[in-house]
Each structure stands twice: as C-alpha cells, then as structure tokens.
Write a structure and sequence with these properties.
- The chain has 255 residues and is an alpha+beta fold.
- The protein is built from seven helices and nine strands, in the order ααββαβαββαββαβαβ.
- The chain has helices spanning 3-7, 23-35, 81-97, 113-116, 160-170, 205-225, 236-239; strands at residues 45-51, 69-75, 102-105, 122-130, 152-154, 181-185, 189-195, 230-233, 246-254.
- The strands form two sheets. Strands 5-6-7-9-8 form a five-stranded mixed beta sheet, with helices on one face.
Length: 255
C-alpha cells in the first residue's frame, strides 16, 4: 500500500500496544522524514523521535494519547511555517500508516517544558505512533467528513482526476474534525480557502493552519499519484480581497 492508497483507508488510532519497534523500522521513518522537501522554502525544521516505552516523556492532559512513540516537529517561525509543518507531518503520518502502524495527531496535547527545551526550534505539533491494538484502517465511507457539496464550489466542469484530488483533500484529518478547508474549482486551478473562526475561537487559528497543511499534503500526494502537474501560488487579487466567512490561503495551478 502506498501513501495515496493509505489516504482512503487510514484512521486516527488512539489505543496502542506499548511495544518497541525494531530499530530498522524507526531508522527508516527518520530517514523518510529527513528526505521530505519543504512546502515553503527557506524554513528550517527539526524532527524529534521520542520513545515513551520506558518512561513517560511529557505528553499529558485530557487530549493526550498514550503511545509507544511520538514524532515531534519544531520549526523556525516564518511566514506559513504552520502550513509547512502540517504538510510535512501528514506525509510522515501516511508513510508510517502505509507500513501497517497506527498514528494520531496530537493537536490539542503539548509536551512538557523539559521535552520542549530539547528541541532546536519552536515546537509545532506531534504525532503518536506505534503498533495499534486494533486495525489502523477503515473503509472511506466510515470517515466522518462533510460531503463534497459542503466544501467545493465548481465554477467549471472538471475531469475525474481533479475530483479524485479533491476527495483525497476532503478525507484529511483535522483537529476536533473541524475540516476548515473550502475550495473554488476551475478547470486549471483550485482556489483554497479556510473558514474564519469566530472571535471566541481565534486561539484555534494556529491549529487551523496546521490542518490546512495536512490537507495540502493529501491534495499534492493525490496529484503526484495521478500524474497531474500542480504548483501552489498565491493570487494577489484574492489575498487583498475580504470574504465574509472564509480567508484565502493559496491556489493550486493545474497543468
């Protein structure tokens, strides 16, 4: 199973067997992480593997998931660094899941200061992973996601492959299953927006941009699988335009 296939069958795993993985498996995961290209050039990041088998490594609280391992990412704080981190971590999550292991994003849980202080840059997010107690997979129909009609506005008729890209994006995981992405679609471009949070939820803006990066990973993995040439670029016109319910993020240029 490759990463594209995994998009459609993965699920967030919250119960793990507290068993060690072979070093060869962990080393392969680390090498994959270090090989990932940045979504946004010029941002330095660090991946940190944390073993939670012998002693608790600091992920606590009501939203923490107890797992044998965590992979953390820390990043320089530059424009779109949250988007970049989400993009990288979703690829890593899918890669791990494609090996039959389970993962879960730790969006609402944070490591203790002791662990944070060992990181090179500012902590962004982590994924829990390891051998799941149950299957790490499920049928795509079981995913609790908004229907396409609630997320996508088609301005022109598009081919089946572009619809497959958007389906992959629709299935992306998000904090609290918030699914903040919205799409306006033409034959040769997809304008990507995020829903605006109300004032009382503005603290969630940070997590939301990580979620948007996660979704972009799914979208671009699908494009690569389907042999569709896609480049991301920001429209100055849309960046300077105010929308009542949504905020413009970027555009996927096709072809």
């Amino acid at each position: 199973m490759n990463m594209y296939d995994t998009i459609f069958v993965r699920k967030s795993v919250r119960k793990y067997r507290q068993e060690a993985l072979e070093w060869e498996v962990l080393d392969d995961i680390l090498k994959f992480a270090d090989s990932l290209p940045m979504l946004v050039k010029g941002i330095k990041v660090e991946f940190k593997l944390v073993s939670n088998i012998e002693r608790n490594q600091g992920f606590n609280g009501p939203f923490a998931v107890k797992a044998p391992y965590y992979m953390c990412i820390s990043s320089e704080k530059k424009d779109d660094y949250l988007l970049n981190a989400g993009y990288l971590m979703q690829q890593l999550s899918l890669y791990i899941e494609s090996k039959g292991l389970g993962t879960c994003f730790m969006g609402a849980a944070s490591p203790g200061w002791g662990l944070k202080n060992t990181m090179k840059y500012d902590y962004v997010i982590a994924i829990a992973f390891g051998k799941p107690k149950d299957s790490p997979y499920r049928d795509a129909s079981q995913a609790k996601r908004y229907p396409e009609s609630g997320l996508v506005v088609y301005k022109e008729e598009v081919n089946a492959d572009i619809r497959k890209m958007l389906e992959a994006a629709r299935l992306a995981p998000s904090s609290y299953n918030n699914q903040p992405w919205r799409f306006v679609v033409y034959k040769n471009k997809i304008h990507i927006f995020t829903r605006k949070n109300p004032l009382i939820a503005r603290p969630l803006d940070r997590i939301k941009m990580i979620d948007m990066g996660i979704m972009l990973a799914n979208l671009l993995i699908a494009a690569e699988e389907l042999w569709i040439d896609v480049k991301l670029a920001k429209s100055e016109t849309l960046m300077n335009k105010q929308f009542e319910k949504n905020k413009y993020v970027t555009t996927a240029l096709i072809g």
